Amino acid sequence: MYLHFLLLLGSGVSSYFLTLKETPHLQNKNTSSVIDEILCLLEAEKDPIDVNISRPLHIKNRSCAHENTKNFIKELEKMSKWKCMKLVEKDMKNLQKNCSFLNKTSPNNCRCSEMENTTSSGFKKYLEEFLKWVNEEEDCSNIVSSESGLYLDGKCSCSDSWKYRKGLL
User: Fold this and answer.
1) In a 3-state reduction of DSSP, which class is residue 53?
2) ∠ CA 52-53-59, rounded to 5°
3) pLDDT digit string (tens) for 2-45?
């Protein structure tokens, strides 16, 4: 009987009785913050993006954060035929929905709607800068990507080695 109990404990059945907080080593290691996931996906998209793209000018202005997020998403919608960028768009919508200061409507500030044309690499650079600022300005790092690591073709995957290389883990 005692041996049977030890076998059950060794097989992981014991985790059924423990809370998630008590068993972090048993939880899915593939989850990452949505911001980390977006940064990885931006780097993973290697195909040339041949659409006219604009970017917000005032990306580090807190009163423009909501408008900037909307503008980035609007531009990402133009890139939906590129797989990684489609995933970035989905993650940006998740971030906007769940990060409190990104889903609050900005005051009517005409500077917030100012945009300029840019290249795809310029767009990625400014979106990355915006996301890093968001992460520093208001901690939205607890928002996780629901599909982290689930990209079957490997084109848009984010390996743990990428996260370590970037200092995100």
Assistant:
1) strand
2) 165
3) 555 444 455 555 444 444 444 343 344 455 688 988 999 998 88
